[in-house]
Amino acid sequence: MLRITQPPAAATQTAEHPIAAVGRHLVRYTLVLVIAWIGALKYGNYEASAIQPLVAHSPILSWVYHILSVRAFAAVAGTVEITAALLIAIRPLSPRVSAVGSAMGVLLFLSTVSFLFTTPGVAVASAGGFPVLSVLPGQFLIKDVVLVSAALWTLGDSLGAVRGPSARPGAARGKIPAGSRQP
Questions:
Q1: Region of poorest pLDDT, from 5-9, 26-30, 72-76, 109-113
Q2: Of 93, 114, 102, which is closest to residue 35 (Cα–Cα)?
Q3: Parent domain of 42
Q4: Within 10 Å of residue 99's Cβ, how many Cβ atoms?
Q5: Which residue among 25, 42, 43, 158 is least crowded, i.e. fewest CB within 10 A of its CB?
Q6: More reliable by pLDDT, 124 or 109
């Protein structure tokens, strides 16, 4: 008699291509590099002055200049960015802490993406307006759509690692052997 069996669910998943594995690491650690670099630049007068018009026109953030100077706010923002970068980087040691850093990254980049809608001069009026973006600040800001997506991916990756490879009910208590099928 011929018996047809199906492999366990875990065995049916396709293996990750080596290029995808390299890409996964590059996304995480180039995001760390970009956030940390931008954060470090916030301590200088050049970057503090450069972000001033973006923040000043933001209905979400403009209030901070009533409390902090341009340089002080830039330093606070830089510290938050460097902290987020460091937390994202420690994913191999602590996925839960890395998830916090990734969530910070998502919020940071969502705030800068919002500048696309609040900063004068983003669209080029002489070229017909939106969707034609000015070089500065429009094209400078649009890259943050990719960066918020990368931060969102690192958040999901870290949260997935927190749950562990076997997130099925009962698996954490040892009742379901790894790789076995649930009824």
A1: 5-9
A2: 102
A3: 27-163
A4: 22
A5: 25
A6: 109
Domain membership flag for residue 17: no
**At residue 176, does pLDDT exceed 50?**
no
Q: pTM of whole model > 0.90? A: no
Q: Are 115 and 56 in contact (CB under 8 A)?
A: no
Q: CA torsion 22→26→29→31, rounded to 10°?
A: -150
In a domain, 115, yes or no: yes
Q: Determine, yes or no, domain membership for 16.
A: no
> Rounded to an integer, what is the distance from CA 22 to the centroid of its chain?
18
Count of structural domains, the chain: 1
Residue 73: partners with Cβ closer than 8 Å, 6 or more residues away: 48, 55, 64, 65
SS3 5: coil
